[in-house]
């Protein structure tokens, strides 16, 4: 059955608009509605020398069939200032958030089966005076979801995070029994319900070097991680760890593993991106809506050049189709 999805091109000075236009060069099995400035997409198509044509559509008359190759449906959302590839403008930060809000509200009210997001620039949104740490946290707040989980996945590896966009100095204090338990429950439930894994086996990283070396290099493993995992194991979850993160990612360990749970962003994501940058998807688990995204950022250096890889956005689209087709 044909479904309708929201596609947000993200930061207007970045590669998101380019990616969306390049993908619209081919036909898709579902209806994609880019929530963006029509003028931005027209200008960027011209700059890239693409024949793809943005075509305005509105919520009172959504198209029922996918766009033909070379057409990108657009729900026009005006910019504050014309965008120039590679040049961030804080004045356009509210525009970026408006596109995300339209997409998420459309998912909540049933207009969209899910949303796929191209990269935003977190720094420029903060420069505009708006506290923002990422789509993940923004969508949790917008949907009133107290705890969500960031998971990135590529061929042969899924990595979920206990903490997301936090300064490193704040990480240890954020690894509480309550957060670890909630994140593990969400990861376990969504692997089962949204990815069809009957009894997920999850490998859990320690926080400290060598998982704390028996308490000599930190006590979070003994006091927080192990007791929390044991409580959840007693309920039947297949959880292994806490394991030293430096050797957890060995091929032998990953042979029987449905997901790795890392304690913080740069403990897990460099491994995932080393394995699959450009072919990975970022999924927000625990939301009442389906949201997938790319594995890369705004690549300001490449905006408007056409020298970009659309692989991750393609994986993000396919993952959203699979998650909503179950
Ligand atoms: N999903 C998201 O919204 C998302 C994800 C990651 C980073 N970001 C944000 O993006 C901004 C820039 O981040 P960064 O510089 O750390 O990472 P980046 O991913 O933008 O760039 C890292 C390197 O990868 C290259 N690159 C990235 N995407 C590419 C593509 N599709 N094709 C070819 N080359 C590509 C860039 O040119 C650069 O050399 C930051 O504000 C960051 O927070 C957003
Ligand atoms: N942590 C993500 C990554 O490294 O790819 C990225 O910053 C995007 O996060 P959001 O989906 O929360 O914007």
Automatic annotation (TrEMBL):
Reactions this protein catalyses: 4-(phosphooxy)-L-threonine + NAD(+) = 3-amino-2-oxopropyl phosphate + CO2 + NADH
The protein's Enzyme Commission number: 1.1.1.262
Keyword Transmembrane helix among UniProt keywords: no
GO biological process, one term: pyridoxal phosphate biosynthetic process
Protein's cellular compartments: Cytoplasm
Entry's family note: Belongs to the PdxA family.
Anything else known: The active site is located at the dimer interface.
This protein's name: 4-hydroxythreonine-4-phosphate dehydrogenase
Organism encoding this protein: Stutzerimonas nosocomialis
Taxonomic path: Bacteria, Pseudomonadati, Pseudomonadota, Gammaproteobacteria, Pseudomonadales
